[in-house]
Model the fold of this input.
Amino acid sequence: MVVRARRRHTNVMNTRTPLISVALFCISSLALSETPAEMHTPVYDKDQLVLPANYREWVFLSAGFDMSYSPVASPGHHMFDNVFAEPLAYKSFLQAGTWPDKTLLVLEQRGARGKGSINQHGNYQDGAVMGLEVHVKDVARFEGGWAFFQFDGKTTGKLVPHTEDCYSCHASHAAVDTTFVQFYPTLLPLAKSKGTLSKSYQP
Amino acid sequence: MVVRARRRHTNVMNTRTPLISVALFCISSLALSETPAEMHTPVYDKDQLVLPANYREWVFLSAGFDMSYSPVASPGHHMFDNVFAEPLAYKSFLQAGTWPDKTLLVLEQRGARGKGSINQHGNYQDGAVMGLEVHVKDVARFEGGWAFFQFDGKTTGKLVPHTEDCYSCHASHAAVDTTFVQFYPTLLPLAKSKGTLSKSYQP
Done:
């Protein structure tokens, strides 16, 4: 539930944006979208995305616990979600306050355990991966520049169709370039300082 | 509270270990303890440890939520803790199932937020770092081979005296080499398969 509520996208701009801003945005987007050399870029198998095998060694952005964007809370079980960024895309974000083209972000969901070993309260992460989704920026390939792929325990993931409301939700609510930087505590201040927050973003 | 309950150590061996096992353990420890070239090793400023500035780019081991090892639950506020390993120490663990000498592990505690932006339920991580602690393996320097350093918003951390019960707790309960690998979901199966679980460890 968190994944689908969390992963949504279309273009950040809206029709009210004055022409001069559009022009400036396009210029800066080109500059900011440069893909760093040696970055791990998306690998496709026909229309599917190949899972980056070593994403657990990428840069951790944050973890959430039982997050839900729905007014109705999630059912009985607890869940963690961890988000990882490709390291050179992350370094690029540190410089620019936004993501370069070919960025890969991985959302990993894990079950939560309560009592176990010496833990008495709260929760720690379980060995079982409950869900895996990748958010890809590939401007030449995808409507709006980004796409979500879902992995059902396989090494290639299926494209989530751009008609799904996850895309429009990300476009409406994401802090930076349709990504939920508002939940990544080390990146949000950077985006603020670099002036890359989306106009539609509400803290 | 989590930090102090979580960070405890002494030597894994006990006096009941037969001599032949001791000898084998010492040989294998020497092999496993080799520090990889180019690893970020501990830097000391007199008796304090210098905080590794880029620890957020290290390998994420796991995150916990409101974890407590005490029978009494923590007070009113929620908290996340994130754990990071120096990347080459992590790679060494993947090979050996235990940590090389000079390993640095960082525990970062962050406040938790509930409702915010579009999040309605559960918690996400706050910008404020509430606590920071580093667990260092430095066999030549510390009693039992490991030490904890606490950082109070500074760039150098104070040694937690080896008389503190965090050390004995880690020695008694930690899954691998006095570290709480039982809470790091990608490392625990590795330690099991490589036979490096501590004898005293209880799942």
Residues 19-32 of chain B form the longest helix (14 residues). The domain at 2-11+36-194 of chain B is CATH 3.50.70.20 (Chalcone isomerase).
